[in-house]
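hey m, so remember when u said the tokens were messed up on ur end? i reran from scratch. heres the input so u can diff it against urs
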Amino acid sequence: MHKLTAVLGPIFALAIAGAAWADTTPAPAPLDPVKLDLARQIIATTDARKQTEAMFDTIFSNTDSLVSRAMPQASREFLQQFSQDYRQDLRSMVPQMIDLTIETYARDLTETELRDMLAWSQSASGRSIQAKLPTITKDVLAGEQPMMAALLPKIMHQTIDRACEEAKCTADERQTMVAMMNQMFPPAKRPD
């Protein structure tokens, strides 16, 4: 049974789509106060908090819909609770994400680029485009959803193959995993 556990770990890690990595970058140099102020103005003009929260809502809505349709009913409640908790935790991190964005702008962009970006974000076109970004993001993600739905079963089956090869699964263990994946992500029906 330990082989089955070895196979389940990578598959469910992929299904949840969580990622963690160690930050080994050196401490950054002090930031130019003028560039930092310009970056703050850009973020204030773009209403980054609202934009970020709207993006999270759109992404989670599409992901929840895609995955929940493929999951057995008993697993849907778990997914809904996980998604709700994860979304709430991400929302609590938005201020830190905004601070990181400000620092990154100040570090990676020149003063001229920041001034130009600020001028654009304060222009009529800049404000109009920014107001439309949540709808644009929603439309793009909705358009991508069928592609992702078609790709996910293939990725899951490739993961089973690799994990079973590494864990030296028996034919029965592999078949159990394939059956679980086919239940969660039914193979596409071919037109007759």
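this time it looks ok to me. Residues 54 and 134 are 6 Å apart (CA to CA). if urs says something different then somethings off w ur setup not the seq
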